[in-house]
Amino acid sequence: MGASSSTARASPEAHERREQETLASAALALPLLRAAFSRSAAGPAALPDALAPPRAYFRLSGSPLLPHFHDLLERLGPAVASLFFADGAAAGADGDAGWVPFLKGFNRCCARVSASRSLALLLRVYLAACAAAGAPCGVQFQPDEGGDEEGKVVGELAPEEIAVFLWMCWVMAWSGSAPKAAAGDGGDKSEPVAVLLPDVTHLVLSALVSAGAVADDESVWGWQISTGGKGVKVQEFTSWVLATASGLGNCLSQYVQERLRSLAADSTEENSVSTDNTTFDTSDVYLLTRGRAWAIVLSLRNKLSEKFLSGSVIGMDAEDLLYRSSVHGKGLSRFWFGVEGYNGPMLILLSAFSKGGVKNVDSDRRWLIGVLTEEGFESKDTFYGSSGFLCATHPIFRMLPPSGKEKNFVYSHLRPQIRVYEANPKPVGLAFGGTVGNERIFLDEDFSKVVVRHHAVDKTYQHGSLIPNQGYLPVEASVLDVEVWGLGGEATRRQQDVYKKRENIFSEQRRKVDLKTFGNWEDSPEKMMMDMISDPNRVRREDR
User: Fold this and answer.
1) CA-CA distance, 108 to 77, in Å (whole number)?
2) Contacts of 73 (CB under 8 A, 6+ apart)
3) Chain segment 198-224, per-residue pLDDT in tens
4) Pfam families annotated for this entry (predicted)?
5) Where does residue 202 rank: exposed (0-12), middle (13-18), buried (19+ CB within 10 A)?
6) Element (H, E) at 491
7) Is the distance from CB of 489 to CB of 316 less than 8 angstroms?
8) DSSP of 169-208, one letter per residue?
9) Percent of the chain with pLDDT over 90
10) Between the N and C ends of the chain, which has fewer C-beta atoms within 10 Å?
C-alpha cells in the first residue's frame, strides 16, 4: 500500500529520469555514463572534443584523398554533440541539471531503433559535418511539422559523396580499435600517425549498380570513384544499405558508446594515436584486403564480424592464413594439407579471369568471389554443412546468405587412395551450392579452372550474380590465386596443430617395417615358392 502510494506521488521529473536511465542502461552502464557526464563538465568544448575521432592523418594508396575530408572529421565531434547533446549543454552540466538531457541525447543516438532510422541519424551527422566543413553534400533534412526530432533525409548522393560517407563510417569504426597514446606521455602532443584508408570502390559500385546508376555490364570494369557519374537517391541508398551493408546503421551508436567509454576511462589521455604503431599504414598484400574485410563486416550479423573488423583496421593476422596457392602451390592436395584438421569457420577467396573475350588476361578483367563456411572441410562425395555465405568481392561487392531451402553448402571430394571401378564417378574438387554435377561454384582438382553457374541451379544460397554481366550459361574461368583464412582463433589453430602432430606420428609408424612380425624365413610361404621355382621336380616329403 505504501509502495503504491509513493509511486503515485513520484514527480514527473523523477519518473522521466528513471525512464531515461532504464533506456540508457541497456546500451551502456549507468556508472560509466555518470562518469562521462561528470567529465564533460570541464568546459563547453569537453564533450565535442571527446566525441571527435583520434587525431590522425588519413591517406589513400596511389591516389589523392578527396578534399574536405580532414575538415569533415574535425567537425564530426561537434556535429554529434550539437545534434544530440545540445539540450544538456544548454541546461548546464553542473549537478543533476543536465543529467536527464544528457541521457536523452544518448538515447536518441544509441537506443535500439530500426535500421532505417539509425541510418537516417547517421546521414544527419554526415550532413551537419559537411555543412560545418564546407564540403559538398547533396543530402537535406526535412523536419516534420511537429518539431525537429523526427523527419526524413532526402536528396541525392554522388559517387564521391558515397565514398566520403563510407570512409567517415570506417574512421568511426577505426577509432574504437585505434591504440591510444601510451600512458605517461603527459601533455606531449606527438604528430599524428598516417593511416591508410581502405579501398571502398567495390562498395560504391555496388550501391550504384543496385540503384541502376551504373549498368551491371562491361562498364563496371576499370570503374573508379573519380569517374563520377549519376548519383543515388537517399531512398535508393537506404534500400541498398538494408540489403547489403546493414552494419552501417550501427556505426553511430557504437561510435558514441566507444567515445563516451574512453572519456569515462581516463580524462587525461591524449585524443591521438601512438606514433609507435605503424601497422595502420601497411599496404594490402593479400586477396583479403582491408576494404574487402570491412565490406564483410557491414554485411555480417554474427560474432565473425569482430574478426573482420580487426582485419579491416590493421590487416589480417598472417598466422590465420591457412593456404595460399601462390605460396603453397596449386592443387587440392596442397589445399587439403593446409585446412585438414581445422574445425572452425573459414573464408575461401578465389581470384580468376574469364576465358571469353580478346583481352581476357588483362588484370582489369580479374574478378574475385568468396565463400564463408561455418565449419571445417571433410572428404566426402556428397554435399554437407550447416551454414555459409557466398560473396562477390571484386569489382562489385555482394553478399548472398543462405536461402534456407537446401543445405548443399560445401562439397569437398578428394581422389581415393585405393581406386576401384565406379560406373558414375563423383567429381573430384571443391564445390559450393547446387547439386553434384551441377554445382553453382566448382573448383577442379588442379585449381586451374573454376566454373560458376547461374543461381537457378542452386537452392542453398540466395539468388544474385557473382560475376559482372553473368548470364544463364556456365562461366568457365582460369584460376589466378586461392586464399583460405581461418577465423576460429588461437584455440582452433592449436587443435589443428595437435591433429597434424598426431597424423605425422601415425604416418611415421606406417612407414616403419618390423621384420620380426614376418616370422622365420625357413617356414615362410615365400621360401617355399622360391624353392619350387628353382627346382620344380624335386621330391618333397609332406610334413604331417
Assistant:
1) 16
2) 52, 53, 58, 129, 168, 171
3) 999 999 999 999 998 888 777 788 888
4) TLD
5) buried
6) helix 490-511
7) no
8) HHHHHHHHHSPBPPTT-TT--PPPPEEEPPP-HHHHHHHH
9) 50
10) C
Using CA atoms, how far residue 458 sits from 2, 253, 468, in Å, is 66, 37, 18
Q: What is the three-class DSSP state of 371?
A: strand
Computed over every residue of the chain, the mean pLDDT equals 83
Q: Label the pairing between strands 429-435 and 438-444.
A: antiparallel
Cell numbers at residue 93, please?
Answer: 552540466
Instruction: Return the DSSP state at 246.
Output: G
Q: How far apart, in Å, do the first and last CA atoms of the chain sit?
A: 107
Q: 372: helix, coil or strand? A: strand
Q: Which amino acid is at 35?
A: A
3-state secondary structure 60-71: CCCCCCCCCHHH
Grid coordinates given for 387: 551454414
Provide the angle, in degrees to the nearest 10, between the axes of the packed helices 304-314 and 159-177. 100
What span, in angstroms and rounded, lies between the C-alpha atoms of 329 and 339? Answer: 14
Helices (H), 198-289: 201-211, 234-244, 251-265
Compute CA distances 33 → 26, 84, 97, 160, 458, whole Å.
12, 15, 15, 37, 50
Task: Give 97-147 pLDDT, tens digit per residue.
Answer: 788 889 999 999 998 888 899 999 999 999 999 999 999 898 998 887 655
Cell numbers standing for residue 230: 549519376
Phi, psi angle pair for 252, to nearest 5°: -65, -50
Q: What are phi and psi of 375, to 5 degrees?
A: -145, 175
The answer to whether the CB of 247 falls within 8 A of the CB of 300 is yes
Kindly list the distances between the CA atom of residue 123 and the CA atoms of 21, 153, 249, in Å, as whole numbers in the listed order: 26, 7, 10
Count CA atoms within 13 Å of residue 141 on its CB side: 19
Are β-strands 366-373 and 346-354 bridged in parallel, bridged antiparallel, or unpaired? Answer: antiparallel
